[in-house]
Structures are given as structure tokens and as C-alpha cells.
Records
---
Amino acid sequence: MSETETISSAELSALTGLTDRRHRQIADLGYMAPPDGGRWPREETIAGLFKYYREHKRKDSSNLENEKIRKTKAEADLVIAKARAMERKHVPVDAVLLVWERVMLNLRAKIMSSGLNEKDRRGILDELQPANLDEYFAGVVIDDVDEGKSEENE
């Protein structure tokens, strides 16, 4: 009977481009028998390396598919985030009015607690009456809308 052909660790490293340590790690994973005295069983080692490469190629392909899916999901999430950011630029009128009312209440409280005399406080508060403000803001909104229409027509 002939003796099993072997290959040295140095020859195997030259052929595969892997270090002896990496070959031993692959052997520890069960793909091939470990070396005996620094020599690897040639046929079993080559078959084991091919098996290792085939299985890892499948895993790499699977990882690539997963990465493509992850990238596509991230791109979709980015589009959704951009759309939500655009929505946040447009604020509902009710939300603005609610904030405005709070601002006005705080402003009135500060005016009332200020060191101003009664006549000056009354004068400022009269200017802040809703009727005066509604007229002012209605004019601003109408002017802005009219300006937008005229810019679109140009």
C-alpha cells in the first residue's frame, strides 16, 4: 500500500495564500484533518479547502443579498424621513393659534406685572386686543397669498 501523499505547511501557504495559522483554524472547524508534523494530507486538505470555500461563497452571497436589502430599506427610510420633514414645514393653523394664544396670555401677564402705570398698561393691552390683531394678521396672510399668486403668474 502506498503512503498518503502530504504537502508541507509552507507549500500549502504558497498555493492558497493563507497562513499556516488560518489553515489550522479551518481544520479546527472540521473541514480537513490537522497537520501531522507540519505536513498536511494532500487530497483531504484540498477537498476540505474547496468545501470551505464553497460554503463561504454561499454565505458571502447571502450576506450580499442581506446588505442589498438593508441598503434598500435604509434608502426607503430616508425618503420617508424627507417626506415627514417636508410635512413639518407646513404647520396647521389651529396649532399656530394655540401657540399664539399662549404667547399672548404670557405677554399680558408680564405687562400686568410690570412697573408701568395703569394708563400705559391699558394702552398696550388695548393694542393687543384680538380684533386689532386679527385685522393685522388677516392683512399679512392676504398679502402673502396675493404675492404668491402674482409670483406664480409671472
Note: The chain has two domains: 6-84, 91-149.
---
Amino acid sequence: MKVQPLTKTIDYFFLISTSTFLALGGIGVFSEAFLLLGTVNAIIALGCKILLNGKVEFPKNYFLYIIFLLTLLIHTYFTGGKFLFFWLFLSGGLLWLEVYNFKEVFSKYFSSLLIILGILMGILYFYSLGNPIVLPNLVSLFAGTTGLIKHSNIGDLWAIVLIPILYKLTKDKSKIYIPLMLVGIYFLSISYSRAAIVSLSVGIVYLFKDDIFKKNYRKRFGILFTGIIILFIYFGLSKTTLLSRPYFLQALLGLFQYLLGTGMGNFPLISYDSNLVHNIFLEILSGMGVFSIFFFVWMYRVIKNVILSKQVNNVAVAIFLAVLADFCFNTTYTIPGYIWIWFLALGII
């Protein structure tokens, strides 16, 4: 077999396998097993790339990320933290490297991959309505609201899925995406997720930053943002944005008591309200204390590079920033399938 056909076959194989683990990582059951399998899949993909090309390419700031990972591993070991966070960031880092080296095929199908993922989780959501499935809501991308948990991550997922859909509707003017847009709006409305609203807004503002105030687009964006504001207010009627997040302040104040960090996953040491901070930055600051500096430096360098670079995939950047915005008000960074979307977008950028 010639090298070129073999290379394409391998590219598509890992596109499919990675997409499969992305979906499985969002179901909410056997999460740790799929986390491990997703990690192994990325390692095998990189091994194949080395066999074919003799090397792998490293994206900017990757070695800084390795320093953060090593620090996280050592810190977690000595503080008795939960290794789940290390595995999440390790698998995410490997996925970032995998996608960066398979960028051509992942860039081509990125939007379609997300839309298919959204449809699959939507089908599971409707199936679960008539066939109750016992799932931990906060680690599933499709489980509906139950009991005191008035939040469903299906809205957070579809906030991300709506970004390429709106882009295709606006740029390609293809009416085939209108039903998908309506489905996305439905999932947003039933999710009660304010984080999803913020996430979608961030993605739209970045993606259409050059078009929002143009005369041809002003009216439609005005209608869109009016709807977003109405949804945000509607969700806020049942829970206020700040008062329902006392753990933000608890994480900051806890730093005075645990300057070296509580250990990742040990937030209950300083909070009686939640096991997680609902903010990725405060989660890492609380867990790693002063050692979180490596994450913040890496994050600053990545965001700076993403914002200032002119040679980028705008849809991927919009999704990267939108997911990051969701991480600031939610616990979706503990869901393998969702945090992998973030690293997948970073690899394409």
C-alpha cells in the first residue's frame, strides 16, 4: 500500500475513534474508563504519526503545559488530591497534541463532529425522558434536570454546537441549519444554564465581531441577543448568579488558610456548599495554591496567542473561548467529553 493512501486511512481512523471517545466521555457512566481509553487512543495516534513521519510537531506553549502537568502530578500525590484532575488534563493535553498533528482532517470535520455530538446527546436526552436512566447529572452531557438540580448540561453542549450552526447559517445561508438552530434554542431553554448563555454569547461575539454592527447584520444580531438576554433573565428568576456561587469567595478566602493548596478535588476542606468551585481558575487556584502559577502562565500565553494570531480557524477559536467561558461558571471541566472539546479546538487553532 502506498504511503499517501495509508496516511489518509490512519487520519480518518483516528478521526472516528477520537470522535467516538468524545461522545462516550460525555454520557456520564464509566467516565473513568472512557477517560483512560481516550488517553490510550491519543497515545496510539501519536505513535502512528511517529512511525509514518518520524516525529510529531509540538504546538506553541506545549512544553509550558508539560511543566504544569508535572507540577499537578507531584502536588496531587503529596497533598492527597484526586488524580481525576490529573487524568483530565493529561488526556486533554495528549488530545491537543494528537489533533495538532492531525489538524487537516480534524479541521475539515470539526463543525460536523460537534453537530453530530449534539444530535446524539439530544437523542439520548429524549430517550431518557421515557426511559429513566440513573445518571449523575453534573457529569453527563444529556441528563435532564431532576429534583434540586435545576440545571442540565445539554444546554451547555448545545451552546457550543450552536456556534458552527449560526456561522453556517450566516455565511453559507443554508436553510438546512434552521431546524438545528431551533433544536439548540430548545435545549438552551430547558437547561436553565446561565453558563450556557454566557458561553454562547462569548462565542458569537468573537465569531461575528467584524459583522455585528454592519447594517446588513445589525437587525438579526439585535434579535439574537435580545433572545439571549430574555433567557438569561428567565433562568435568573429561580437562582441569582452571584448568591448561588458562594464558593467563589470561599475559594479565594481559603487561599489564606491553604497557601500551598488543598489538593485538587479537596475543595470541601474549605466549603460546606459544594465539592467543586464551579470555576476552573478558582478550582486550580484553590487546589494548587501558589503552584497554580504554572497553569495561569500557560493559560495567559495560550489566550494571548489565540487572540493575537491572524492565522487561525475562527470557529475553533470561538468554541475554545466559549467553552472557557462555560468553565468559569460551571463544573463541565470535570466531564471528559466536554473538556476534550476545549483541547480539540485548541489543537485546530
Note: The chain has 14 helices and no strands.
